[in-house]
């Protein structure tokens, strides 16, 4: 199991995972990642990009996690709805989010959370969902390289495009948690 970073968390029960969800069609199945995380003894809170919020069943995810979905900044003085994260999984991660994050842009709660998590040395796993055409763009390649250089753990890119057999592969939700497992 993932070892918590003591200076980051203030909770003693289960380690807390932030799941950042971006606007990609596979986001409709984010509950699969949440279920797997809960089976591996994680407590989960979901942060969606503003566009990503419309790509999955928000009420069902809130019921599954027992927490509100966050998509916007909280007002000054409002309580924090989540404890500090022990780890962050970005799944699915889009071209837009990867590029803005690598540039240090924090114009959404999701991006601000990712930028801050890096500064707090919180482990971050990314499952990109980026088409072949967008993945060929030099900005994307440079952004992935920069984030990897910052210690961000990337899974294989999922293009959503049919393979040689004409079928689409299943999005590898559990790989995000595998990337967060302790490294020997």
UniProtKB/TrEMBL annotation:
Entry-linked Pfam families: Flavoprotein
GO MF entries: catalytic activity
Annotated ranges, domain Flavoprotein: 18-136
Name under which the protein is recorded: Flavoprotein
Lineage of origin: Bacteria, Bacillati, Actinomycetota, Actinomycetes, Kitasatosporales
């Amino acid at each position: 199991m993932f070892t918590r970073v003591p200076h980051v968390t203030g909770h003693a029960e289960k380690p807390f995972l932030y799941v950042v969800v971006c606007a990609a069609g596979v986001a409709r199945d984010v509950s699969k990642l949440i279920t797997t995380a809960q089976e591996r003894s994680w407590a989960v809170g979901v942060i969606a990009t503003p566009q990503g919020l419309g790509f999955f069943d928000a009420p069902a995810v809130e019921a599954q996690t027992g927490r509100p979905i966050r998509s916007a900044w909280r007002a000054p003085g409002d309580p924090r709805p989540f404890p500090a994260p022990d780890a962050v999984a970005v799944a699915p991660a889009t071209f837009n989010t990867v590029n803005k994050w690598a540039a240090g842009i924090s114009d959404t709660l999701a991006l601000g959370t990712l930028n801050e998590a890096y500064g707090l040395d919180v482990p971050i796993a990314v499952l990109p969902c980026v088409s072949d055409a967008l993945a060929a763009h030099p900005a994307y390649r440079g952004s992935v390289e920069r984030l990897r250089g910052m210690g961000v753990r990337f899974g294989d890119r999922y293009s959503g495009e049919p393979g040689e057999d004409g079928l689409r592969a299943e999005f590898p939700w559990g790989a995000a948690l595998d990337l967060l497992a302790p490294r020997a």
